[in-house]
Predict the structure.
Amino acid sequence: MNAAVRAVVRMGIYVEAKVYFIHEGYQGMVDGGDNIKEATWESVSSMLQVGGTVIGSARCKEFRGREGRLKAAHNLVQRGITNLCVIGGDGSLTGANLFREEWSGLLEELLQQGLIDEEAARSNSELHIVGMVGSIDNDFCGTDMTIGTDSALHRIIEVVDAIMTTAQSPLGFHCLYLALVSALACGADWVFIPEMPPKDGWEDSMCQKLSEVTNAHKSKRLNIIIVAEGAIDSHNKAITPDYIKDLVVRCLGFDTRVTILGHVQRGGTPSAFDRVLASRMGVEAVLALLEASATTPACVVSLVGNQAVRLPLMECVQMTQEVQKAMDEKKFEEAVRLREVYGLNKESSFNVAVLNVGAPAAGMNAAVRAAVRVGITEGHKMFAVSDGFEGFYKGECPFYRVSYSNSIKTFLHARTLPGKHLDKIAEQIKIHNINALLVIGGFEAYVGLLELSAARGQYSELCVPMVMVPATVSNNIPGSDLSIGSDTALNAITDTCDRIKQSASGTKRRVFIIETMGGYCGYLASVGGLAAGADTVYIYEEPFDIRDLQANVEHLTQKMKTSIQRGLVLRNENSNENFTTDFIYQLYTEEGKGVFDCRKNILGHMQQGGAPSPFDRNFGTKIAAKAIQWITKTLKESYKGGRVFTNSEDTACLLGMRRRALVFQPVSQLRDETDFVHRIPKEQWWLKLRPLMKILAKYKTSYDVSDSGQLEHVTRVRPREA
């Protein structure tokens, strides 16, 4: 929430508005006094890495009554506040909408009581409201992710990963969405959620499953069962962790422990994703308030795919309440439909090969695991190829069959491209009767798929469905806004920046110069800088000269002469061949004499390692599953005369996140969008975030609002039959 507060304050000041903090939520609005204070630029410094909210939050019984809302209205009118940005759940946002609907009546009542004059009533006649959803539950309809959910998933996965290393058998925690996604992210054996009560006999089925998994893997000493708060069976009987523990002990004799996370999920440092999400939402909220009119309904700023949108607040609230109503009435299929949770179908059998190409990226294992298991579920025989395209053409037993119960591990990677070995690759496809290819990797994987698809006219064996899933920390693949691995790298950068700044506690003013990876792509530096609160970020895509460097140093020097104690400068490794990290470090050191001192840090390959973030695990799982479903569909369409044959360009695709949705795009059509020399797309969406980063760093710059969200209506989920 702090990142959202920071963005609203600084964007508000940027547009020359007077911004106020209301401490302790609606209670502070009702009580007034020192609870409502004007915010300054410096008052939101050094808060990005702090969990929770520095302005406090409290439930307010008084605000639920008209008398309380009358007091709140009086306190706002006294300060001339006519725009409210509310960060909370559906209860807080519903209360804000009611407050707005009553506003004219409240002003009239205040006027009659003599608490305000006619001029105050006239100048404050309209109240505009914009909401941002802050909730770890992610249970608000209209947005893909709420502020706080990703950070909560980080806490859960950290705990589950730690428990798994102790080789015990833990059981669940609370929260529906968190239960489902963390089960995907950690590879849980069983998950219980309220929307999908298990069928009668689930106790025997679960115990049999746990026993089979343990017997199949003598080295597997633990099982993970996750239980969401409110989980029930088909007879409305509660399913609790303790009940499951007793069941497992009684039926299987396994040593079983219960771990209930509780408020651990709410604490800790916010993730990079949450910081960027909240910063984008905060700026969007201010723009929405500036554009609001008397006829504009109260809206909520949401995230759909990778795009910020504005939706009517009460439409979202109504749809959220419909889910709860379906749950209360035990209409579980309706609740699942509204939640957009769907299953898989078993199809006919084909041979599908999976290979990793290029440098490793966190989350690849999740993608491979999902691809293999979804493929087997749909009836395919799944093959893994070691050493990427190099292993493919060498044919030194690189293929091995993967079963559902196999332990999925990262296959060896290689950067070798297939272009010079197409004949041998075609031969291996024929030998192993491979009917489809799933390639998971970075820029080499993309170029490799281009070479394979271009050679279809020469080798008929290559006329099979091919799809690529982008996985690279650099996030430099054309056709996709996001790549598997980039979120983990961003978290590594953000965590390191937090620690580096903390290392200077107790010292005088200090500026840190930090070099990030990414090749010629400035994604990690720019978005990492936004998440970490950088003052300046140097990238290849935005050329800079010595005059820019001088202006940046002078700007930072002026900031450091105030109460600001820490400065942060990020530089992409290939941003400029002459203005190196050492050069920039020496420049800032020299020009900052007497005001601040400098330190430098080159992050290197630490951005590429570590445990995958929950986002990368979840994204890798979803995108790989969707890729296999596409392969199944395409195989059925191209199976004729007893063989698979297809050479149309739309059967050699890249599956990427584009704005709002996952989209399959022919790689041949992406060729013109690619700068092959620098290995980056010609157009990159995140460049539009750079002005936002500069505004939050107190630069005077223009902000392009052409891509800002427009008010839309909530899209209702249609029944599956339709």
